[in-house]
Amino acid sequence: MEQRMSVQLYADPCTVNCRKVLAGCHLIGAEYELIYLSYFAGGHRQPEYLAINPNGMLPALKDGGFVLWESDVILQYIGAKTAQHTGYPSDLIARSDVHRWQAWSSAQWFPACYPFLVENAVKPLLGQSADPEVLAASVATFHRFAAVLDAHLRGRIWIVGENPTFADISVAAPMHVHTFQKLPLDRYPNIRAWIARVEALDCWRETDPLPHFPAPAE
After folding, report:
1. CATH of span 6-82
2. How many CB atoms lie within 10 A of CB 209?
3. What are the sequence ranges of the domains in the chain?
């Protein structure tokens, strides 16, 4: 029997990890109450929030008296509690495969994509210019891990199994504004085809971060 629930999510939808959790909730139809904290305004550094997550990072979950940080673990908790087995498989091998790709995304893919996000998307919002040296130093790492993902996606529609899962959401999140990030995707046709499929999902369209970004600085 599927368990209905509503948890509180402290988040700013414009950030990578918040968008990940919100899109994952939409993927499996999990209910939540959004407690909006502006990342750019420093809402995650206020004492009230630091009492919830002393790391001062978004997102965080509250379910009654239980508090949880770390976006992938938040998704795993919500998926297990909601018991929606398409987006978060119950089969041990499939679920472990989802966890593997979530861990890979956190440890390898996010750091590979992040400099492009900061330099090409965030800095312009703050009226700053991208640092070409930082971008040049980031290219080799990006290509190393993009090649891993592209090879895995060869002949596959989704990262794990026959349906979109949390694996797709977690891996897509670090490149969620890839056009603005200017990620060097030209040599990766499988990634480009896959991210287009992710972007066509209702859960992805419903959590579009662009309306939540501040206007570019003059």
Report:
1. 3.40.30.10
2. 18
3. 6-82, 92-201
CATH number of 92-201, picked from 1.20.1050.10, 2.40.420.20, 1.10.10.10, 3.30.930.10: 1.20.1050.10
CB 170 within 8 A of CB 72: yes
Give the pLDDT confidence of 197-213 residue by residue, as tens digits.
999 999 999 998 877 66
* Domain 92-201 in the same topology as domain 6-82: no
Mean pLDDT of all residues in the chain? 93
* 72: nearest Cα among 161, 174, 147: 174
Query: What is the H or E stretch that residue 11 is in?
Result: strand 6-11
Alpha helices in 39-131 (DSSP H): 47-50, 71-82, 92-104, 110-117, 123-125
Quick one: what percent of the chain has pLDDT higher than 70?
94
CB atoms within 10 A of CB 97: 17
Say which range, 27-36, 56-65, 77-86, has the weakest mean pLDDT.
Answer: 77-86
- Label residues 106-124 b or e (16+ Cβ within 10 Å = b): bebbbebbbbbbbbbbbbe
Rounded Cα distance between 27 and 167, Å, is: 11
Tally of CB atoms within 10 A around 79? 24
Contacts of 22 (CB under 8 A, 6+ apart): 9, 11, 13, 32, 34, 207
217 band by pLDDT with thresholds 50, 70 and 90: low
